[in-house]
Design brief:
single chain, 197 residues, Rossmann fold, 2 domains, 6 helices, UCP030820, DUF934 domain-containing protein
Length: 197
């Protein structure tokens, strides 16, 4: 039996995913989720692995060589702060932000802060409950890779990156708001009190 290839959207192309996201085993039948200590002690398999922040913090010394070889990335939960990684950002090949539910918008702020405040320029991946309707907004705040939900068509989700042809607000992908980009031929004499703003 052949292994099913995992696909992601990277940039604006569907490609095979060479990374494995390390997660704690799910609690069976609504059981108690693993303790933080149990998560931090998870064994990190060989290959390219995106580990939780807790695993990176607990196993940092043993993972450093692999990180420098481009084999370790880190993922940030929606209730964690990216600033905790600011001294180690240059060591990661990829940073992922987890969306536990599509309605949890904290990942957008994490991505925005990674790009604008912390200066992250590498791959920024959205993982978890990632749907087509979110992709356009995710790219606006700095995401450039998307691991969409496996029960949905990744090729259909790709279309979500081009749902809109223009944006009004400034963000990571467009630093200037539309009203500053639009050439205006209206002067004060024509009744536009906001001319020149």
């Amino acid at each position: 039996m052949s292994e099913v290839k995992k696909l992601i959207i990277k940039g604006r192309v569907v490609v095979e995913d060479s990374w494995h996201v390390l997660r704690a085993p799910e609690a069976a039948d609504g059981g108690v989720a693993p303790e933080a200590d149990a998560i931090a002690a998870l064994p990190v398999p060989a290959g390219k692995v995106i580990v939780p922040v807790a695993v990176w913090n607990a196993q940092r010394e043993s993972l450093l060589a692999r990180a420098e070889a481009g084999e370790i990335g880190v993922w940030i939960a929606s209730d964690e702060r990216p600033e905790a990684l600011k001294d180690d950002l240059s060591k990661f090949a990829v940073i992922a932000v987890d969306f536990p539910k599509f309605t949890d918008g904290r990942g957008y702020s994490i991505a925005y802060n990674l790009r604008t405040r912390l200066g992250w320029t590498g791959e920024l991946r959205a993982i978890g409950d990632v749907l087509r309707d979110q992709l356009f907004s995710m790219q606006r705040v700095g995401f450039d890779a998307y691991a969409t939900r496996p029960d949905r068509s990744i090729h259909d989700a790709l279309k979500g990156l081009s749902d809109f042809s223009e944006t009004y607000q400034a963000s990571v992908d467009q630093k200037v708001p539309l009203f500053r980009r639009h050439a205006r031929n209206v002067g004060v004499k024509d009744g536009d009190a906001g001319y020149g703003i």
